[in-house]
């Protein structure tokens, strides 16, 4: 049985070599992690998706008691397509500036690497409470894997005391996050020659009207900026990320699809944007389309929903994380993470991990070596705390 683990940076080098862009399977990476854990005699459980092409993983080290700590992270990354990288995005590249470059270093394989490198330390320690690992798939496209992972974990282990989601926070403790909603809008028109616009209806044109309406709604919501929470920006945001439609420049488009979403501040109504979009379509936009042709239609399909995180629900986890980081305050963030999903199961949850979120999804993504060191120190303090419960 293996007794020594690679350093967190050596483990990071191993993890970033797997291209786990969300459109791909993450099974090779998950199986590599499972094999690594097996070398230390640590058995793990996989929670696959319906197709069996991807999987979550969870495991526990230490006594089977309540009060353990969950260390959680997602294994998928965003694409590098079209980005001007200065080095191979799938090879960890240390540079003289003290940073480690590769896709996923910051978001968020750095935290997973640090957690895995501490496996033998957790095993050597006389833990009074267990350490649980929970690694998911498809966080980047709507936190699709985490609901099944959280449900399986909560049903399989004694109740944990806190969850640490290791998204990049510069090792600050985040106890509040936005809700996140993802929606697909499909516009169905009626094809006609582009010189005969009176005979058909362009799905692209009406999708453009909807985008314009979303922009106006965004401007309205920006006027409701809150000062009681330190997110930037301090209001609900809306984004249309993907637009596809049409078949030729001289044909009225039969179909246009918008992949769009919104982020709502914790404590605000997470359904307002969707509710108002549905009302605008039903009362104004769709009647205008059908007046041009009865076959026209618009559908909204929810792609994802990520619960928000409220500070008052996570005080216990925040207190512990501040003890391990040495920090003296908590933060709120405008993005959504899997933290809200774990919190929906009643477990106090915070976000705390190495790296700067401003590096996430960028070309030449990096995590500072000093941040990996800080995460190692955090996990060392966590280990000592778990020995004294």
Outline of the structure:
This protein has helices at 8-16, 27-39, 105-117, 119-124, 146-156, 203-222, 272-292, 315-325, 339-343, 369-387; strands at residues 44-48, 55-61, 69-74, 93-94, 99-101, 131-136, 162-165, 173-177, 179-188, 237-245, 255-264, 297-306, 330-333, 349-351, 366-368. It has 389 residues and is an alpha/beta fold.
Number of helices: 10
Outline: elongated
> What percentage of residues falls in helices of 4 or more residues?
25-40%
* Radius of gyration using CA atoms only: 23 Å
CATH topology of the largest domain: Aminopeptidase
Rounded mean pLDDT is 96
Structural class: alpha/beta
Characterize the biggest β-sheet. 6 strands, mixed
Superfamily at the CATH H level of the largest domain?
Zn peptidases
Key words describing this protein structure:
389 residues, alpha/beta, Aminopeptidase, Alpha-Beta Plaits, 2 domains, six-stranded mixed β-sheet, 10 helices, elongated
What do you see in this structure?
The mean pLDDT is 96. The protein has two domains: 8-177 and 308-387, Zn peptidases (Aminopeptidase, 3-Layer(aba) Sandwich), CATH 3.40.630; 179-306, 2-Layer Sandwich (Alpha-Beta Plaits). Helix content is 33%, strand content 22%. The chain has ten helices and 15 strands. It starts with 7 loop residues before the first helix and ends with a helix. Helix 3 crosses helix 10. The strands form four sheets. A six-stranded mixed β-sheet has the order 1-2-6-3-7-14. A four-stranded antiparallel β-sheet has the order 10-11-9-12, covered by helices on one side. Strands 4-5-15 form a three-stranded antiparallel β-sheet. The chain has 389 residues and is α/β, with parallel strands linked by helices. It has helices at residues 8-16, 27-39, 105-117, 119-124, 146-156, 203-222, 272-292, 315-325, 339-343, 369-387; strands at residues 44-48, 55-61, 69-74, 93-94, 99-101, 131-136, 162-165, 173-177, 179-188, 237-245, 255-264, 297-306, 330-333, 349-351, 366-368.
């Amino acid at each position: 049985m293996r007794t020594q683990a690679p350093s967190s940076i050596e483990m990071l080098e191993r993890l970033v070599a797997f291209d786990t862009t969300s459109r791909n399977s993450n099974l090779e990476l998950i199986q590599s992690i499972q094999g690594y854990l097996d070398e230390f005699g640590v058995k793990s459980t996989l929670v696959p998706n319906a197709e069996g092409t991807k999987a979550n993983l969870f495991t526990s080290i230490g006594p089977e008691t309540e009060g353990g700590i969950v260390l959680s992270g997602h294994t998928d990354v965003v694409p590098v397509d079209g980005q001007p990288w200065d080095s191979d995005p799938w090879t960890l590249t240390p540079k003289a500036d003290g940073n480690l470059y590769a896709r996923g270093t910051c978001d968020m394989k750095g935290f997973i690497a640090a957690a895995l490198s501490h496996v033998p330390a957790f095993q050597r320690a006389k833990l009074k409470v267990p350490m649980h690992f929970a690694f998911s798939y498809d966080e980047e496209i709507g936190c699709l894997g985490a609901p099944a992972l959280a449900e399986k974990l909560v049903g399989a282990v004694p109740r944990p005391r806190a969850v640490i989601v290791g998204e990049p926070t510069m090792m600050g403790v985040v106890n509040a996050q936005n809700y996140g909603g993802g929606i697909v809008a499909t516009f169905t028109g009626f094809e006609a020659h582009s010189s005969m616009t009176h005979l058909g209806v362009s799905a692209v044109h009406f999708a453009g009207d909807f985008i314009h309406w979303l922009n106006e709604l965004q401007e309205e919501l920006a006027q409701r900026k809150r000062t009681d929470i330190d997110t930037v920006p301090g209001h609900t945001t809306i984004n249309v990320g993907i637009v596809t439609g049409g078949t030729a420049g001289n044909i009225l488009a039969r179909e246009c699809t918008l992949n769009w979403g919104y982020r709502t501040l914790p404590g605000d109504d997470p359904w307002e944007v969707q509710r108002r979009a549905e009302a605008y379509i039903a009362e104004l936009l769709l009647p205008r389309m059908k007046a041009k042709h009865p076959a026209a239609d618009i559908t909204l399909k929810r792609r994802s929903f990520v619960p928000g995180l409220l500070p008052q629900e996570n005080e216990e986890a925040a207190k512990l994380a501040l003890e391990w980081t040495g920090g003296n305050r908590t933060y709120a963030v405008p993005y959504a993470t899997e933290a809200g999903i774990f919190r929906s199961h009643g477990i106090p949850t915070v976000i705390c991990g190495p790296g700067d979120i401003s590096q996430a999804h960028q070309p030449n993504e990096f995590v500072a070596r000093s941040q990996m060191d800080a995460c190692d120190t955090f996990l060392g303090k966590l280990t000592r705390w778990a020995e004294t419960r």
